[in-house]
Design a protein that fits this description.
Length: 618
């Protein structure tokens, strides 16, 4: 029988322009007004993502912001006539809150306080004209809750943070009812009150490794739906009494994955579903048959694609649906639940063609100490896993590190595959969603067992014959940048070169230069990463900048000057150590960026440099 599968050699591959992968989306972040009459979205203006509004029924769009320095960081509808948006300054992450009418009038800064970060606590959907926000205005290390009047701009402080309160929860009436706090540096405490007239009182104290998270109050505001791993390995969804954190009923638990989110209908006042992130397919458990039937009707419109509800109007009759897969940046559809009609309203990147892009293959490998690691392998066009042999590979560990990679579209992955590289991403120990034991296995294992998981993945690729052992690079951002530096420092024989993007290089200086609002969690970070005194030898042994003499391959390092998480000194000291030894190191610094490059022209510069670097050394 003839094998008709095309190989890379048999099929010419178009070299897609780099800018097509990394330019701003044509339209993105669609939302619908509460009354269902207007659509809002972000689109480019002066190469920055600005806010636009247009009627649902058609007609011209109005640009309501005109930012030229930096794209908006996020936005939301305040009511039917007004939108709120956030922006920072050159990547400093000190977000300020602004408001604007849907016709572009009455643009106002609500929290224009230099050096202060604004967080959103509750949109107060049932209280038009008001929102709850957090500000670290009084003390840069802690956030106090305020009720903001959007008409007058008046800020009313609702409580004073004693210094260790980290998060707030409101009930369905917008009343502050629960607080999470850090006590003794490493314990997490939940404080609760039945009414706003009462003081908060502690109801549960656990070690930070144990988790209880109130996700939503029940419709009567008495009990809560909570995600918890108390007494179990995987995070489960339970019904809980918030007055004493007694677990009343187990609602859903998955044997392999943590519960990560729930669906709740404000209109119907009902818990709808629970959600886990799977290796490829999501896990969704329904509590409501009407919701299950609605999702099945939606699904029939998008065969072969993944979809999710991006937004809905207050009546829950009209939906915005995001539709995509691993080979498209995605599209938005307007769905009428009353008529079961779906209408495409936007392609996010119509210049990218699905048939030219590649699949992301879920794979699994075993570590030296017996963990099964879920990973993703993407191959150059024309290859399938069975016939992929001797390829140049870019190993791409994720940032966080307490985050995870997921199946889906990635501009970086598609760009690298289009240039002829295979890309390998792995959810090393500590990646979230896999239970408490897997998470705790990462504590104080930066550069040790966590790095071994990455190394074991590379050895798996070599044993399968997929990777050419002489042509393996490692690239990552943030913690992934640290892992890239560890890879070429502690296993220098594995890699031909490395790219470090806003990565940590020295664990001592990293722990000293964290943002002020991380300081209440510093003792917890010492438990997770290591203590600069008690674990001094270990931190010294796993800080690549202190062992630059072991590196023998070229590096590309990129850094934002205003990065509040990974200080520029992390990259400076690494570059200095390498240059002292005469090793090839390219260093890109962007003065108007922070933890990652937001501005389109800076992204282009970085990926151009990466393209030339990999071409030269891989």
């Amino acid at each position: 029988m003839t094998d008709h599968r095309q190989t890379n050699a048999a099929r010419p591959v178009r070299r897609i322009p780099l800018e097509d992968f990394f330019r701003n989306s044509q339209e993105a972040a669609y939302q619908i007004s509460p009354d269902g009459r207007h659509l809002s979205y972000l689109a480019p203006y002066a190469d920055r993502m600005n806010l636009f509004v247009r009627p649902v029924g058609g007609g011209g769009a109005v640009r309501v912001t005109s930012e030229t320095q930096r794209s908006l960081a996020g936005y939301m509808w305040a009511d039917n006539g007004r939108l709120l948006f956030m922006k920072d300054t050159d990547g400093d992450e000190n977000y300020r809150l602004y408001g604007v009418n849907l016709d572009g009038s009455d643009l106002r800064a609500y929290t224009d306080f230099p050096g202060v970060r604004t967080t959103l606590i509750d949109d107060l959907e049932e209280t038009p004209g008001k929102v709850l926000i957090g500000l670290n205005r009084r003390n840069p290390e802690v956030f106090d809750p305020y009720r903001l009047d959007l008409d007058t701009g008046e800020l009313t402080q609702l409580a004073e943070n004693p210094g260790n309160w980290q998060g707030w929860m409101t009930d369905h009436e917008g009343r502050l009812r629960a607080v999470t706090a850090i006590v003794d540096g490493v314990n997490t405490q939940i404080l609760y009150r039945a009414t706003e007239d009462e003081d908060f009182r502690p109801v549960l104290t656990t070690n930070f490794k144990e988790m209880v998270s109130f996700m939503e109050f029940t419709p009567d505001n008495r009990l809560v739906y909570a995600a918890t791993n108390l007494g179990r390995d995987k995070v489960a969804l339970v019904l809980m009494d918030p007055s004493d954190c007694r677990e009343l009923e187990l609602l859903f638990e998955h044997p392999q994955y943590d519960v990560s989110s729930i669906g709740y209908s404000r209109k119907r006042k009902k818990l709808l579903s629970a959600y886990c992130t799977g290796h490829k397919e999501p896990v969704r458990h329904y509590f409501d048959e009407e919701e299950r039937a609605l999702r099945e009707r939606m699904k029939r419109h998008f065969p072969g694609y993944r979809f999710g509800v991006a937004d809905t109007d207050k009546a829950e009759e009209h939906y915005l649906i995001y539709v995509g897969n691993d080979r498209t940046r995605g599209a938005y559809y307007y769905y009428n639940a009353l008529t079961d009609e779906a209408r495409k309203i936007a392609d996010t990147a119509p210049w990218l063609h699905e048939e030219e892009l590649v699949e992301m293959h879920p794979v699994t490998y075993r570590t030296r100490d017996g963990w099964d690691i879920e990973a993703y392998l993407s191959l150059p066009p024309g290859y399938v896993p069975d016939d992929a042999k001797g390829l140049p590979v870019v190993v791409n560990p994720h940032g966080g590190p307490w985050a995870r990679d997921v199946w889906g579209y990635s501009s970086e992955v598609q760009f690298l595959c289009n240039r002829g590289y295979a890309v390998f991403q792995m959810n090393f120990r500590g990646s979230t969603g896999y239970g408490r034991k897997f998470l705790e296995a990462s504590y104080k294992q930066w550069g040790l067992a966590m790095q071994d998981d990455i190394t074991d993945g590379v050895e798996w690729l070599k044993a399968k014959g997929i990777a050419d052992p002489e042509r393996i690079a490692i690239y990552g951002g943030s913690y992934g940048g640290y892992a890239a530096l560890c890879g070429v420092t502690f296993t220098p024989e594995l890699y031909a070169c490395a790219v470090d993007y806003v990565g940590v290089s020295n664990l001592f200086t990293f722990l000293k230069t964290i943002p002020p609002y991380w300081r209440p969690m510093l003792e917890m970070m010492y438990e997770q990463v290591g203590h600069p005194e008690r674990d001094r030898e270990q931190l010294a042994a796993t800080s690549p900048a202190l062992h630059a003499d072991r590196i023998r391959v070229p590096l590309l390092i990129a850094q934002g000057s205003n990065d509040p998480r990974v200080n520029k000194a992390e990259s400076d000291q690494m570059v200095e150590a390498l240059r002292r030894r005469g090793l090839p190191v390219e260093y890109m610094v962007k003065e108007n960026e922070g933890h990652g490059f937001s501005n389109q022209e800076n992204r282009f510069d970085f990926y151009r440099a990466m393209e030339a670097f990999l071409e030269k050394y891989l």
